[in-house]
Amino acid sequence: MMKKLSLFAVLAVVAMPAGAYTNWGTRAGSSADLSSAPATRTRQNVNYEKYQTRTLTKTYESKDAGDLYYTKPQNRSALYRQYEGANSSSARATKTTTRTTRSEQVINRMKRKYYLAHPFFQPLEGMFGSVTDISYTDTSYDIMLPSGPSGIFADIDGAMTELSFNGATGSWDATSITIKEDFSYGITDRIALVAMAQYNMSDYEFKWDDGSPADKMEDDDLNLFGIGAQWRFVDNEKWIGTASAYYQHQKDISNNVLLELKGGYKVSRSTIYALARGWYLDYDGEVYGNGVSGKDAFGYDSALILAYGDEGDAMYLEAGLGVFSVLNEDWTLNVEGVFGDYDWFNQATIKGAIGWQPNDWFALNLYARASIYSSADGKELDTYYWLADAYLDDAAEYPLNGLKYIGKTELDKYSEYTIGAQVIFQF
User: Fold this and answer.
1) Most Cβ neighbours (<10 Å): which of 78, 131, 381, 396?
2) What is the pLDDT of residue 35?
3) CA atoms of 145 and 168, how far apart (whole Å)
4) Confidence of residue 104 (pLDDT cuts 50, 70, 90)
């Protein structure tokens, strides 16, 4: 039987493996000793002095009243002043003070913090990285099936009957809980190897407006395996850049090759970055798209397919902009917008993520992503039907693994969103 593939599954599968990249932050660690001069004093609020790794020493005049100011008496003793005043009735004893200062050293000791939720994170040399991504995705759109005769005949109650879809309306809905693991190892500080696997618990469904029972299919499987490499080719005080390549096999669906390039500019606590991705998908079958298979109302094994293409392969391209910011020592924020050309339609998505990292080896990243524009609305997809044991008068009419072309299905109100969490370790 023809293999089926939902668009959401394709996008989830070939979306960049939560992968390995990097940013630097700092936090204060200094000591104070005011017992003697010159003093060494703690300099506070230096957590985000950008990319500073050397020790800074500053000498300045303290202005803490009562701490470093004192009163210096005049040279003569108080007793001598009394005698001096006694010799002149008009003379008044005076007290003069001289304000002096004591210099002190201020030492800022800066410590790098490796932000694991950063879009450029990858494990350092000799270390391992683990990104466990658990997400829920929902993709849906309204449909109107072809009208008129289908050309498919079946033996129903002893009579040859031509099936007709009569322009039926309804919706397609695909939901999935995905668990994806990316495990990486740092060959050097610049190069890391990545292995990945993904498990999906998916439900696919055609819902009909006329009250007919929905056509459903479930698919729970460990259905993705992949390997790849990441190269951080630049990482200095101002710039960071990575190049990545991956090979992925989606079980019974396709083999994929993915290339990605990212570049970022570091500004204060933030990294502003651009990305470009391209991947080639080689499908196992001749037709790919959305569909379900199962028993129809008459007990036949059947399948309905809304096809994105029938060439057996596809090219996808993405470009995007994003910003990653360190809110404070433990909290981060990431906002990213992506525009993609996915072979048969275009789509723009926006993603927001907030990360919590209490130490150097663990981070939790919560995110949400949604489609804000799609050219799928108004598209017409080639539609195929397969019916087991149907009487095929002319095999030439069923060239695609027994699939019968029945016309065009129109799409409307495309919607897609994902919510998820990433648990990230470096050890």
Assistant:
1) 131
2) 30
3) 5
4) low
Query: Is the separation of the CB atoms in 316 and 341 below 8 Å?
Result: yes
| DSSP β-bridge partners for residue 355 | 332, 365
Residue 265: its pLDDT value, please?
96
Q: Which residue has the tokens 């095999």?
A: 395
| CA 19 to chain CA centroid, nearest Å | 9
Of the candidates 23, 241, 237, the one whose C-alpha atom is nearest the C-alpha of residue 113 is 23
| Tokens standing for residue 131 | 């990104």
β-strand pairing of 362-374 with 404-426: antiparallel
What is the longest distance spanned by two Cα atoms in the chain? 143
Pick the more confident residue, 319 or 386: 319
b/e 166-185 (16+ beta carbons within 10 angstroms → b): eebebbbbbbbebebbbbbb
Secondary structure of the chain: what % helix, strand, coil (to 5)? 5, 60, 35
pTM as predicted: 0.73
Tens-digit pLDDT profile for residues 391-405 = 555 444 444 456 788
Q: Three-class SS of residue 395?
A: helix
Q: At residue 172, what is the residue type?
A: W
pLDDT tens per residue, range 5-19: 333 333 333 333 222
